[in-house]
């Protein structure tokens, strides 16, 4: 049995989740402590992929990263690198669709705790960096972790946008969801069934674990 | 010595006060929403007033448009109304939070003394959600004094306590005030408390000294 869709999917999802985690935490923190004109517009743009059909996201990415696109052209001219129809394109699609989940979870987590905890730390002489690493991040961690799990699950399940910008190239861009679709289309239901069971089990485990962990965490910090 | 002149817009009124406090316990007394906490926050550097001047001993820590010393460098101890103890840290970590790592040994004696005088020494390894309201209040006091501040601010420090703990807390504040000899500025909306604690008390209503 060809396992490459599983490995490829894991590789893409792990990389996408790492990117989304770092940028999501950074942006959520930045926007949660600052108010400025146009903040609502930025937040709306960030959340947009959540309500758009994946084909619209895919079309947008093709438009920007295609050979003649704004960024695609730059990549080609400067680095002689074409993103479209590579596994990097699948990473890009996964990042764009899973980013809103990470951002939303992290932003809610940063806003949830009492601001006076940070204020208290400042009055004791702590630098902004120290307050972030010792107060804000640990207290927001349960929400951030939920965001990481949800983003990973969303990245793993990405189909529409991936198909549009990475295509279906066996051994190169055939992620699990794509492999399921093309197996069914080719009449190979048995192969599709195995991947479906795998995706189902993973999805269930992720959500189950998340619920359990959330329940446990609400009891208190000292009972880890 | 603490001097504060503040002139700032709030949602319902304009806050306009001038305070000058020597090494005494001054109680800011007045109804809820009259701007008392805003005054403490401005002195601590958490909120920036529209206009004003704040001086702690000989240091000007705020002067409109010219000086804004961040809260980290003001040397102000602050006991928040809900105590703001860090829920994910033990009592000991809470108390030592503001002490620079390299200087911990020089602060040990001072903090040990504070902890035993406020009878919280046995709680070092406990977490904030494992201790009582009165204990939380005393630990918040230890934490605020651990870094040897030049001014101590207390925002309704007894409002969440039962009668016995409240009385004990008030006695301790009076004792600490004598020991420390720095300006204590305490906010309350309880008249009896104001009379019991204050060397001098200032009545604030709708942002103005009445």
Automatic annotation (TrEMBL), chain A:
Its main location: membrane. CDD domains: TM_PBP2. It is found in: Cell membrane. The chain crosses the membrane at residues 6-28, 40-65, 85-110, 131-153, 192-210. InterPro entries: ABC_perm_TupB-like, MetI-like, MetI-like_sf, ModB_ABC. The keyword Transmembrane applies. Residues 6-211 form the ABC transmembrane type-1 domain. GO terms for molecular function: molybdate ion transmembrane transporter activity. Gene3D superfamilies: MetI-like. Keywords: Cell membrane, Membrane, Molybdenum, Transmembrane, Transmembrane helix, Transport. One of its GO terms (cellular component) is plasma membrane. It is a multi-pass membrane protein. The keyword RNA-binding does not apply. Part of the binding-protein-dependent transport system for molybdenum; probably responsible for the translocation of the substrate across the membrane. Belongs to the binding-protein-dependent transport system permease family. CysTW subfamily. This is Molybdenum transport system permease. The lineage of its organism: Bacteria, Bacillati, Bacillota, Bacilli, Bacillales. The gene is modB.
From TrEMBL, chain B:
Residues 1-210 form the ABC transporter domain. InterPro entries: AAA+_ATPase, ABC_SmlMolc_Importer, ABC_transporter-like_ATP-bd, ABC_transporter-like_CS, P-loop_NTPase. Transmembrane segments: none annotated. SUPFAM superfamilies: P-loop containing nucleoside triphosphate hydrolases. PROSITE patterns: ABC_TRANSPORTER_1, ABC_TRANSPORTER_2. Coiled coil: none annotated. SMART domains: AAA. Pfam families: ABC_tran (PF00005). The keyword Nucleotide-binding applies. Keywords: ATP-binding, Nucleotide-binding, Transport. The keyword Disulfide bond does not apply. This is ATP-binding cassette domain-containing protein. It comes from Terrihalobacillus insolitus. The lineage of its organism: Bacteria, Bacillati, Bacillota, Bacilli, Bacillales.
């Amino acid at each position: 049995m060809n396992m490459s869709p599983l490995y490829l999917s894991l590789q893409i999802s792990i990389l996408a989740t790492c990117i989304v985690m770092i940028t999501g935490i950074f942006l959520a923190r930045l926007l949660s402590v600052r108010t400025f004109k146009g903040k609502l517009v930025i937040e709306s743009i960030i959340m947009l992929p959540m309500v758009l059909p994946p084909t619209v996201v895919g079309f947008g990415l093709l438009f920007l990263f295609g050979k003649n696109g704004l960024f695609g052209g730059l990549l080609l001219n400067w680095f002689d690198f074409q993103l479209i129809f590579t596994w990097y394109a699948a990473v890009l699609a996964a990042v764009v669709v899973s980013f809103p989940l990470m951002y939303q979870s992290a932003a809610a987590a940063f806003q949830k705790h009492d601001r006076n905890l940070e204020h208290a730390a400042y009055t004791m002489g702590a630098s902004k960096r120290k307050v972030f690493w010792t107060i804000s991040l640990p207290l927001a961690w349960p929400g951030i972790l939920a965001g990481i799990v949800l983003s990973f699950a969303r990245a793993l399940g990405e189909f529409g946008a991936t198909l549009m910008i990475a295509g279906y190239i066996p051994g190169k861009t055939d992620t699990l969801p794509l492999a399921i679709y093309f197996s069914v289309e080719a009449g190979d239901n048995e192969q599709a069934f195995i991947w479906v069971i795998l995706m189902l089990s993973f999805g269930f485990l992720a959500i189950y674990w998340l619920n359990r962990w959330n329940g446990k965490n609400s009891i208190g910090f000292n009972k880890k | 010595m603490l001097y504060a002149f503040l002139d700032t817009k709030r949602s319902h009124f304009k806050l306009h006060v001038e305070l000058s406090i020597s090494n005494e316990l001054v109680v800011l007394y007045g109804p809820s929403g009259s701007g008392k906490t805003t005054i403490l926050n401005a002195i601590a550097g958490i909120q920036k007033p529209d206009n004003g001047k704040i001086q702690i001993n000989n240091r000007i820590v705020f002067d409109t448009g010219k000086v804004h010393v961040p809260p980290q460098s003001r040397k102000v101890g602050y006991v928040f109304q809900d105590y703001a103890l860090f829920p994910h840290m033990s009592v000991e970590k809470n108390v030592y939070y503001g002490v620079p790592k390299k200087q911990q040994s020089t602060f040990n004696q001072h903090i040990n003394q504070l902890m035993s005088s406020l009878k919280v020494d046995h709680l070092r390894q406990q977490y904030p959600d494992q201790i009582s309201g009165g204990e939380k209040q005393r630990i918040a006091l230890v934490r605020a004094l651990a870094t040897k501040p030049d001014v101590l601010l207390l925002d309704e420090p007894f409002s969440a306590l039962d009668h016995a703990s409240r009385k004990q807390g008030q006695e301790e504040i009076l004792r600490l005030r004598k020991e420390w000899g720095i300006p204590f500025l305490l906010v309350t909306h309880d008249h009896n408390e104001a009379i019991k604690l204050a060397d001098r008390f200032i009545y604030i209503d709708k942002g103005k000294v009445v």
